Amino acid sequence: MAYSFPEEVLEYVFAFLSSDKDRNAVSLVCKSWYEIERWCRRRIFIGNCYAVSPQIVIRRFPEVRAVKIKGKPHFADFNLVPEGWGAYLYPWISAMARSYPWLEEIKLKRMVVTDESLELISKSFKNFKVLVLSSCEGFTTDGLASIAANCRNLRELDLRESEVEDLSGHWLSHFPDNFTSLVSLNMSCLGSEVSFSALERLVSRCPNLKTLRLNRAVPVEKLPSLLRRAPQLVEFGTGAYSAEIQTDIFSNLVEAFSGCKHLKSLSGFWDVVPAYLPAMYNVCSRITSLNLSYATVQSPDLVELISQCPNLKCLWVLDYIEDAGLKALSSYCKDLQELRVFPSDPYGAEPNVSLTEQGLVTVSAGCPKLQSVLYFCRQMSNAALIAIARNRPNFIRFRLCIIEPQAPDYLTLEPLDTGFGAIVENCKELRRLSLSGLLTDRVFEYIGTHAKKLEMLSIAFAGDSDLGLHHVLSGCESLRKLEIRDCPFGHKALLANAAKLETMRSLWMSSCSVSYGACKLLGQKMPRLNVEVIDERGSPNSRPETCPVEKLYVYRTVAGPRVDKPDFVWTMDEDAALRLS
Amino acid sequence: MAMISEEHNKEKLGFEETELRLGLPGGGGGIVNGDFGKNTNANGKRGYLETVNLKLNLSLKETEKGENLQKEKNLISCSNNAVKPPSKTQVVGWPPVRSFRKNVMAVQKSNSEEGVGGTATFVKVSMDGAPYLRKVDLNMYKSYQDLYGALGKMFSSFTMGKCNSQGMMDFMNESKLMDLLNGSDFVPTYEDKDGDWMLVGDVPWEMFVGSCKRLRIMKGTEAIGLAPRALEKCKYRS
User: Fold this and answer.
1) What is the model's pTM?
2) What is the 3-state secondary structure (H, E, C) of A116-164?
3) Ranges for the F-box domain (chain A) (predicted)?
């Protein structure tokens, strides 16, 4: 182009583009835009750590400041992915340590992080600021000590839901005395007690601290001391919220909470003694997010608390809230956007609480902004689902778990096809859906026909035949992640829709009926997919080709087959026949 | 993605005619020239995608669906048929509750009633010489035999000791245990609540499940220190 803008101007304009989609679009306009864009991209999101290699990323984007990487498939959360499967962080850190000395942020989900990696992070990136380890594992508190000791400019250390080998609480004391930059600390997943005086001093000297999520080991009587030192807190997670009822502890808490004029989010509440909940009432009017999912408190006490929170946008709670509590929620909290109800007794044979489909119907009717739901219950009906769908066409995420697999509509004993069909038909913006209960191929026909914006679908114990899977793969245009367990799907729909798999991030199928032979065929025909068979019974070559594999994980990649596979994972590709012999 | 053409919609094709069969490209079956789900009009064979008129099939083809299901089942010659209605406590990962949530409830439950019911008890299993750990849920097994079977399968590629005909480590026989302790074979041990390392099999199964914190499959030579307990036990039992 003869009269194009100078590079500097284009770079300046591109800096306003934050979405990856936009940046990717820009990089396709022409070669010079591709070059300019790649030099100024600062944030990278890698949805599947095996879709690309560190070398490829670094070669294309030399000036990255923030990376976000996801590793294991989602079903790893429920122990469906065997230990040792992969998703190791180290190769990424070792490559980035050489090429991104100015890296500031690392956010990870479901990756295996070792102390060695943490130490390398702490020593390689002089301006390191943000470390978020979500559902990660493989490290100990020694690794945390390296981070604390060496990252002079650290702002965020968030260990949400990670599995940390807790050697001691001593790591916190490694933050140097002149370290004052902390903005966010989430240590709620840790078991050991940290030195309380070290914690107090840390909180005192970090004036920008906005988020502090303590672990269970911090007792309630110590909370006032921390809250008084950090009245600017916006997000706070308590430790164990129980003690013998003592008036001075209570009044200290009331006073300390009152001082926190900016609190918006509360969490923690292990071992709650209901009598201490009112200590928070002063801050409730500003609260927008409440995580009570560890609070084993009965419905009346929950309702008392919730009734003080008219601005609540997000509530995570146990099913102790019951239908009655959800009714109260729907009348007090008109701004509610997200609701998650977790089961208090997921393995009990009989219901232990009075929480049914009615609770969800009531909330969907009363909360006009509700868009994201995760709901565990023991009974559901098509009528209820249809009512919910009509009440709330604005759902974006709808995850329903009826605890008994293949449970039918409890009123009519029919499958729940029409109920979920109503959900996908009415909720045109639905991006995430998890199904449960008795379902035939028909529900998949509805999904394929209507769920055009659906990006993630989770299926368990559902369907009759490959036609079901075919509906989903051929109809869901926006599908990125599909995870299936215990469904009678074989190879037909998979092979017929193989090209679709290249438009998706990943497909997981476990305890289905996909034969080894079909997996090999898929791997041979689709070189840009990694077709991985996970089977702990030994090499699939030792069984007939028609034998179904235990687990199948298929994902698109530009990095070729993995080189770090454990002995129970095999990549199907054109060399499969040679490699496995 | 291939489009369903008008012409094909008008033809009523039986479900089974459009089945794809396994086979090498160019051989009999629907996978032609390595193309999946694309128009392969050139040689007259149609992909699965084009020939299925969904509405038509769903309303008319109930019987054919049934036949097809039967064919599916015939393909599966192994006993590992995935779809049986499972009972709650036996199904791995169901209901889909994260383990840290399960553990919270388990602790609170055991505080208020005896027994831990159907909750999961995950322990790490390491094996000397193996490059990575495994995890097992002890509540999935009813006896030592069950557990040994699972452990044998998990680590079968690493065993150097005596294997039975299935290539799996045979831990089940007590007299074999004695042989194992003498050689370089592998022995299961566990760390209990007090931090002591014990030989697996010493205590009643339920007591073991309640007190086991982690498992380690040791080389027989290293387990020599634990041998006396096993020997003693054998004396009492025989």
Assistant:
1) 0.78
2) HHHHHHHHHCCCCCEEEEECCEEEEHHHHHHHHHHCCCCCEEECCCCEE
3) 5-46
